[in-house]
Every structure is written in C-alpha cells, then in structure tokens.
C-alpha cells in the first residue's frame, strides 16, 4: 500500500492487519510524526520505505528511492488533491495510475467547492484566486472539482460521495486563542464540503 502522508497527524488505526506501507512526502520532518503513529499501530502496519519526493514525480531517479511502476495495491490520498494546482493535480493522478497495479484503487478524501452559483461557491473561488485561502491554510484550494479531475484522468469505476462536515470543537487537538478560533470557525464555514470515495485503475 502507498500512502501520501498529508494525513500523518491522523490515526492510522484504519489500516488492516499486515499492511505494508510506502509513505511519500516532500517534507523530511514528516518522518518523526509518521514514526510516532506507527508505534501506536504496533506490528499491524509495516513501513516498507519513506520516499522523500513530490507526489507529482515519485519515480526512482538520481539513485534516490522512489515508487516503481505497477507496484502498489492501493493509493490512499487524504487532503492532498485539494492543495494542488490543476496542473499538479493532473501530474499527480498520472503518477498514481503509473504506480498502481492493474485493477487497483485510489482512495481519496478531499475538500471540494460548494454547489455552483451559491454564495459560498463565489467566496471559495474569490479567496482561492486571490491566494488568500491557500496562503492561510497550507496551500488548500477550496474551489477544487477533484471528482471531475479523477474522472478525466481515466480511472474506471469512480464512486464517491459529496458530504457536508459539521463543526465540532473536538476536532481541535489543543486550546486556541479567541482570534485563531474565530479564524478556524470562519474557514470551516467556507470549506465544509468534501468528497470521499475510490476509483479503479
């Protein structure tokens, strides 16, 4: 199994017994967080290797470890595609298809834009075009049409559901000062729609 480690802070308890994991991230400091999570998982999840690379190019080049063609059974991609430009998304999905074995799946979770022509839809596009939202929230582009991108990439049997997230203070791992809490609540009001689903190669 291959994992883009954008969700490294989240629990990996959902991975089944005997999972062999290839983690990919361009940030070397992610290794520490990943190691902490793997300790919690015990022997259930095995880290095969950590690939220090961008998801747009995970190939084995310049003697560095990468992800080989047709080598993984599933790609789990959480909150990553919504942080890429359209060009980066196209390249990343092409890379995902390259590394997947035949009849294997990509499992995706991402923020997406609201229904067209709604007030929030226009706000999402404005904040993204002006680079306000991506600057404040680690590159997140809240106006993405990720499901359409996956379909255009040529995946088969695309199944996904769009849902609306409900605010919960339990989602915050530590106390926030009033200004930061207001910022987070405001951001959540703008970006509370997402997709969860899978597609077969």
From TrEMBL:
Residues 15-103 form the Methyltransferase type domain. InterPro entries: Methyltransf_11 (IPR013216), SAM-dependent_MTases_sf (IPR029063), Thiol_S-MT (IPR052356). Pfam families: Methyltransf_11. It comes from the Eukaryota. Gene3D superfamilies: Vaccinia Virus protein VP39 (3.40.50.150). This is Methyltransferase type 11 domain-containing protein.
């Amino acid at each position: 199994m291959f994992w883009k480690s954008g969700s490294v802070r989240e629990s990996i308890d959902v991975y089944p017994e005997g999972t062999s994991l290839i983690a990919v991230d361009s940030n070397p400091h992610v290794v520490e967080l990943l190691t902490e999570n793997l300790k919690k998982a015990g022997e259930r999840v095995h880290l095969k290797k950590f690939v220090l690379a961008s998801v747009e190019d995970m190939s084995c080049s310049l003697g560095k470890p990468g992800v080989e063609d047709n080598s993984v059974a599933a790609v789990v991609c959480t909150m990553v595609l919504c942080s890429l430009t359209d060009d980066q998304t196209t390249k990343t999905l092409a890379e995902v298809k390259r590394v997947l074995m035949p009849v294997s799946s990509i499992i995706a979770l991402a923020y997406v834009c609201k229904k067209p022509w709604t007030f929030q839809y226009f706000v999402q596009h404005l904040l993204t075009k002006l680079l306000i939202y991506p600057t404040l929230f680690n590159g997140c582009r809240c106006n993405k049409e990720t499901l359409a991108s996956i379909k255009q990439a040529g995946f088969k049997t695309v199944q996904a559901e769009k849902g609306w997230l409900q605010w919960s203070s339990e989602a915050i791992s530590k106390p926030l000062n009033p200004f930061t809490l207001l910022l987070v609540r405001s951001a959540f009001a703008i970006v509370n729609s997402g997709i969860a689903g899978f597609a077969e190669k």
